[in-house]
C-alpha cells in the first residue's frame, strides 16, 4: 500500500506534492485551532464550487475571500510563519478565527 503522506522540505516549511511546493501549515497552531480553521477552509472551498456551478460571481468572490482568510490564518499565505514572532503567529490565527467564526471574511 502506498504512503499518501506528503513529503516535506528538510526545514518543514513546505509540502512537496506532485513536484510542487506548498507552504505548510504553521506547526505552532494548537490542534483545536487548526481543526476549526480547516473546517472553515473546507466549507469555503465547497462554497466556491457551489458558486461556480451557479455562475454566481458575487458568491464566488465571497467564498474565495473566506478560503484566503482561512489559509492566511493557517499560516499558508501572507507573511511566512517562520518570519513571525510567537505573538504575531497567535494574533494571526486568532484574528482569522474571529473573522471566520463571525461569518465575515467575505
Sum this structure up briefly.
It comes from Streptomyces bohaiensis. With 106 residues, the chain is mainly alpha-helical.
Structure description:
It is a single chain. The chain has a 3-stranded antiparallel β-sheet with strand order 1-2-3, with no helix packed on it. It is built from 3 helices and 3 strands, in the order E-E-E-H-H-H. The protein is globular. The chain has helices at residues 31-54, 57-74, 86-101, and strands at residues 7-8, 14-17, 20-23. The chain has a domain at 31-101.
Task: List the main descriptive attributes of the protein structure presented here.
single chain, 106 residues, mainly alpha, three-stranded antiparallel sheet, 3 helices, 3 strands, globular
